[in-house]
Amino acid sequence: MSTTFTVDFFCSLDGYGMANGWPGYWGKEGPEVREDRVRTFAQDQVLVFGATTFRQFREFVDVFDEPYFDRLTELPKIVFSGTLEEPLGWRNSTVLDEDAVTAIERLKRTTDVPMRSHGSISLNRALLAAGLVDRLEVLVFPAVSGRAGEAALLHGGAELDLELVESTLLDGRTQKLVYIPHLHKEVPEGAGPQRRTAD
Known about the structure:
- 25% of the residues are buried.
- The protein is globular, with a radius of gyration of 18 Å.
- By secondary structure, it is α/β, with parallel strands linked by helices.
């Protein structure tokens, strides 16, 4: 028995997951982006959160009306936290007060239900560095967050080689990229620009 773990990340072209003063989706959402989200969360899966992202989404689903938010509430959720206590204020949620890397490694071996984590920067950096992420799904919105940018998942994290397995253009402007990440180990001999040989 084993399952897959997917990291799901929204970002601007410069790699930031959010930006002060910009709306959600950087104001670039469209019907195909929303349809993609509905399809993504229609699948049976367990959602995995760090405490900060969990608190944000718990509020989002009450305040905002997105076509997939009810489904987020229906799906089983795990939140890694040493401070949150049950009841968590969001249905179908369970808190785990343990090391996330150890727990996800165990869960991947002992369940066959896929797991997906959205946002949760610190959590997902640790899981990427541990080699526990099977798929990295990135929605790149047509914006540069610049000085306003925050929550950059890949800045300062593990070095990765990415195997592109899917590329989809949504609404004619937002790129969905799906990768299989591999921890970067060494550069193959002969890769990169080669030095000129003396005549």
